């Protein structure tokens, strides 16, 4: 009969079992502005759920598929995806830059298996308005309009990544003829959807003109716009409407 026998033993973790890894946001931060860097933490595990550390597993962990989607499943771009390796707390850090605004999901998989915690929810907000990246869209190919007709345009307010920026941002509208600025009749504007602003006005003088849409002394894209106003036998109402397909939160 054996009495008072003390057995000492040690146990080491097994090799990395990629699908058993646990993912989370660093600092539990999952709310970003477009252009910001996001960091996901990966806690590697073996097949029995034991933590795997850099001391026992020094190889670079790279056998993962990293991507992001909208809530309806469409893929979006992530920039500068990089594996930063192990940190002092035993996590592997994965960094990337988010550029698409919306309510999104971040996925990390090994082959076809999602890691524990994936997908991770995240929200990305538009960056500040970039005047030079704002754009007006016309639905008609003509740039000739009948006298007293109302011209209407929809301006998409965008950040430098092309995300729509909500709010009623102020723009300057100027119609010029032979370097002389002309007054606009009945200028109206309103936000018709988040990030889309409608502008309409009338020109009560025939001739050739240019339209300039700007803000803070900077023109939006595709400016100036050349157009002409003509007189006709019948002064019918002609409305030029812009079409725009906005990027929206899913």
UniProtKB/TrEMBL annotation:
The organism of origin for this protein: Helianthus annuus (Common sunflower)
Taxonomy, superkingdom: Eukaryota
InterPro entries: Ig-like_fold, Ig_E-set, Ig_GEX2_N
Protein name: Immunoglobulin-like protein
Pfam families xref list: Ig_GEX2_N
Domain annotation GEX2 N-terminal Ig-like: ranges: 20-124, 133-228
Gene3D superfamilies noted in UniProt: Immunoglobulins
